[in-house]
Fold each of these.
Amino acid sequence: MPDFIQGRQLAQSDKSAKKTAMKNTTISGYTSPAKWLHWGMALLWICSWGVGILATHWRDELNPHHQLTILHKAVASTLLFLIVLRVTWRLMNRPPELPASMSPLMKRGAMIGHLLLYVVALIALPMSGWYWSSVADKAILVAGLFLLPPLVTPDPELYDLAKYIHTWTAWCCGALVGGHALVALKHHFIDKDETLIGMLPGNGK
């Protein structure tokens, strides 16, 4: 068989193999509402988390009149309402399948990681902040629009406990969100699948 024919067949074989590999690493995109909820809530969460750190650890320098605390509460409290919308959308719209190249163990880890993000970062953290403010008898103005009712009766004796719970939940959430971002980058740059691309605006449904 002439060399040029063999070379052509090899090229076609390589092309076919690449297509097969892409099928194993490609996932369908998320719906547009899911993407906007994901990135919108991520932006709100990161801003709230950062402002909360500044308000707490640089209180005298940056937060003498508690303006950062008020901003932190106004932003963070919106997550309590957005998570209801997000979970409702998730239940009504099945997320895309994970890449076939992922092992069953990795898929289970992804499921657990997403569950922790929902429960700890989007529910437990704002709820613990609401609890702390209620114990301290401090108001929460949601997005500058309306006040949240107190979650519990004010109790100065529980102040330190409430602060401890919210503070350590915040640090745990920071680790969770940071790990989530690193895994997404690993999918894109090392595994070279479309997990991250599927969540970017402008792709998918």
Note: The CA atoms of residues 39 and 200 lie 9 Å apart.
Amino acid sequence: MLAILALAAASCGGGSSDDATDGAPDDATDDSAKADPDAVMRFMWGTPGGSNYDPHEAFNPFVNIFLYPAYDRLLEVTPDSELRPMLAESWEFQEDDTVLRLNLRQDVTFHDGEPFNAEAVKANIERGQTLESSSIKPALASVDEVVVVDEYTVDLMLGGPGAALPALLSDRAGMMVSPAAFDNEDLDLRPVGAGAYQVVDHQPGSLITYEPFPDYWDPEAQTLGG
């Protein structure tokens, strides 16, 4: 499959970070190393026929490279394997680690124009838990209930060990789909997320094309034009 998209590694780091790299020289980055926002990347990547691009149903890990540009996660993992905020600005365990509270960004819009908020998180997690074909159900097994505290705060009520849950929310279990797109017949082919890039063309087995999402909350993360 030929993909025309932003480098997946860049999309994995959708949120910009102010953290400096220890030991890096001051002149480590110059103009020649800066990303070109008008550049287009083309590459070929093999995936099995019939691959599903709905993050709640995808079983093939090789499709992740196509999901990351379109679907931001609640949290993300840095190159140093540390968790950091993405769609959730902060998170903390409460009440003797029986509740995981997520404080969400307030400036996020899905590719279809729908708002991202606590209700969207609740809908996504409950879909991942109840969808008959869900591939993320095991990752969400520790969540007994999702409680909307306010528009941008959500509590995940835990019924079992949940220490690994934040890390799990940095992968497909934390990819947010627009709830308005849940019933889209082509959701398995045309992602509708809140990521830096949106799918504008998908010819299964041949081509998938992304373009920068103009209303993305972190424009600096859009390091390529497509």
Note: Strands lie at 2-4, 42-44, 75-77, 83-85, 88-94, 99-104, 143-150, 153-158, 197-203, 207-212.
Amino acid sequence: PYPVRTDYSALNRYQVVTEGAEVAIIGAGSFAQMASDAAAELAKDGVHATVINPIFLSGLDTELLDRLKAKHRLILTLEDGTLEGGFGQKIAAYYGMDEHIRVRCYGLSKEFHDRYNPEELAREHHLTAEQIVADTLRTLKKKE
């Protein structure tokens, strides 16, 4: 008989690219590189972020998300899709009412984008590494 796969847990394991503390940046899809770029800029300000590539977006790596609670207070999700019903919302819903973790989701608004300049669209939605770093530093200062 043909073997039927019943354990899909390996597909939900995220790749930790860089270990850090305080801030975790989860970069989905083509935004995985932006997550690393933002972390490199944050390091210049003394913030050593954890960078995570989720690889597959269909499930959640709940073991890793639970481990992040120990050393992180801010989770950023970066996705190249719409925010509404997207990956970031799954992460935000997972942490729910946890008062020790704040989740900020970055992505596109749900609207039809026709004939757009990708760089302008990214800036309009705060999807540049520089904007994400500035937002993150402001958020960390507010929480001190």
Note: The beta strands are 15-18, 22-27, 50-53, 72-82, 102-108.
